[in-house]
Design goal:
With 122 residues, the chain is mainly beta. It has a single domain (26-117), classed as Jelly Rolls (Sandwich), CATH 2.60.120.10. The chain is built from no helices and 9 strands. The chain has strands at residues 16-19, 22-28, 33-39, 54-60, 62-67, 70-75, 79-82, 88-93, 98-104. The strands form 2 sheets. The protein has a 6-stranded antiparallel β-sheet with strand order 1-2-3-9-4-7, with no helix packed on it. It has a 3-stranded antiparallel β-sheet with strand order 6-5-8, with no helix packed on it.
């Protein structure tokens, strides 16, 4: 395997505090960007849109997602797709922290600061 660096733990990657109750960390491949969001109960819903297709994987906890005109309650093991340019957002429901893994292809240039720790690999 060319340029294989081995596994890392999300717990050991640098995190960015986005706002109260929201932190994220990133990991990338050549053409894919993973963003692990740690969402604590009490976070504010901030609907937004972007030109990127997004796949959201809920790893822990339960959350309410709004995608366009639809609302979904999802839990650990759920996966959902957010099409490009569709207003969306999600918040935890209940008392458990949500770990939400977002997948973006191609790389989001505006999130490359999250993967500076991998700069020598690329």
């Amino acid at each position: 395997m060319e340029d294989f660096k081995g596994p890392v733990s999300w717990a050991n990657l640098p995190t960015e505090k986005v706002r109260d109750c929201v932190e994220r960390a990133g990991f990338r491949g050549e053409n894919v960007l993973l963003v692990m969001n740690t969402l604590s109960p009490g976070m504010e819903l901030k609907p937004h849109s972007h030109p990127f297709e997004q796949i959201a994987c809920i790893l822990t906890g339960r959350m309410r997602w709004v995608v366009g005109d639809e609302t979904f309650e999802v839990g650990a093991g759920s996966v959902l797709r957010v099409p490009p340019d569709v207003v969306h957002g999600g918040i935890p429901i209940g008392d458990e922290v949500v770990m939400n893994l977002d997948i973006f292809v191609p790389l989001r240039q505006d999130y490359l600061h999250l993967v500076e720790h991998q700069k020598p690999d690329f």
